[in-house]
Design a protein that fits this description.
The protein has one domain: Beta-galactosidase, Chain A, domain 5 (Distorted Sandwich), CATH 2.70.98. It starts with a strand and ends with a strand. A nine-stranded antiparallel beta sheet has the order 7-8-9-10-24-20-19-14-17, with no helix packed on it. Strands 4, 12, 13, 18, 21 and 22 form a six-stranded antiparallel beta sheet that branches. It is mainly β and 295 residues long. A hairpin with a 6-residue loop joins strand 21 and strand 22. The chain has one helix spanning 103-108; strands at 5-9, 13-18, 23-29, 51-52, 64-66, 69-71, 86-91, 94-100, 113-122, 125-134, 140-142, 144-146, 149-151, 163-167, 175-178, 184-189, 197-199, 210-212, 219-224, 230-234, 240-244, 251-258, 277-279, 284-294. Helix content is 2%, strand content 43%. The protein contains one helix and 24 strands.
Length: 295
């Protein structure tokens, strides 16, 4: 089993990534010794920051249809926990991992993909860059996204409801209801306490994730009323955003997505699935989100 861990640092942050799934598992401030990534406690949620490709969330009946054939692709795709992901390049301030299609992947996803993800330190910012290449002769369809979990509360003596999410622009969007089977329902729910603020509390995720489709903002910050640090995410180019944690858990996931789970009335046809990227043969697609630490 591949348990290798790779780390990079500058004079502000140290970042560690597990080779399995190319999963970010630590962003630590070298100034304050503060850890910002959830510790992956297996009794609560045994992950840190899974990478999502080529689907986001659940598929209706756990499968999609493409050109008359059914493909059973797991929830959130097959990059997360994947032991075939390998480190392909490293420098003092960057790590790049990759996975390429093979006979097994073609059984669950019928496209000749190459997926690479790079973690690049730039001062107090970690830039996470995805590149997808289509090595096939046909148009390739896919979604991708991030699922990073952030420690919350960060400091002893703080409570979960001392924290809030602040968006860069006033919002009127409501959250789409997630059903018990993980599909997206037809109802929306108001969740903003103020035009730019969502207050966190232990029961905010009792009914699963908050799912947004029409945000004005492309930046959101996790802040505390009792301490000064600010953790922000820039997600320009990701038209969907998920916010989630297990109920009453000490973390919050801020998830930039290109794509979304199937709706309850989906016909399962991959060619008409909401939010997919359409990539022509022998072309590549690049998208990036960033995590910024201010102390």
């Amino acid at each position: 089993m591949n348990l290798r861990m790779h780390s990079i640092n500058n004079n502000i942050l140290q970042v560690s990534v597990k080779e399995i799934g190319a999963e970010l598992c630590s962003i630590k401030s070298l100034n304050s010794n503060t850890e910002y990534i959830w510790d992956g406690n297996p009794d609560v949620w045994a992950a840190h920051a899974p990478n999502l490709f080529p689907v986001i969330g659940c598929l209706k009946d756990d499968a999609f249809l493409y050109k008359g054939q059914e493909y059973k692709c797991p929830k959130h795709g097959f990059i997360r926990k994947n032991k075939n992901v390998t480190l392909i390049e490293s420098t003092s301030d960057s790590l790049t991992f990759g996975l390429k299609y093979d006979k097994q992947s073609l059984l669950i996803y019928p496209f000749k993909f190459e997926f690479t993800i790079s973690f690049i330190l730039e001062g107090n910012k970690l830039r996470i860059e995805h590149k997808v290449m289509n090595h096939g002769n046909d148009e390739m369809l896919f979604s991708l996204g991030g699922h990073p979990g952030f420690t919350c509360p960060i400091h002893k003596g703080e409570k979960y409801d001392d924290y809030y999410l602040e968006f860069e622009k006033p919002e009127t969007a409501q959250s789409w209801r997630v059903l018990k089977n993980g599909l997206i329902g037809k109802e929306t729910i108001p969740v903003f306490d103020e035009p730019t603020i969502i207050k966190l509390h232990p029961h905010i995720f009792d009914d699963d994730a908050l799912v947004f489709k029409n945000l004005n903002s492309s930046r959101v910050s996790l802040k505390s009323r009792k301490s000064k640090q600010v953790l922000s995410m820039d997600f320009e180019g990701f038209p969907y955003l998920g916010i989630w944690a297990k109920p009453n858990a000490n973390y919050v996931c801020i998830e930039p997505w290109i794509g979304v789970a199937d709706s309850m009335d989906s016909d399962r046809n991959f060619e008409t699935k909401e939010g997919l990227i359409r990539l022509q043969a022998n072309k590549s697609f690049v998208s990036t989100y960033s995590i910024i630490v201010d102390e």
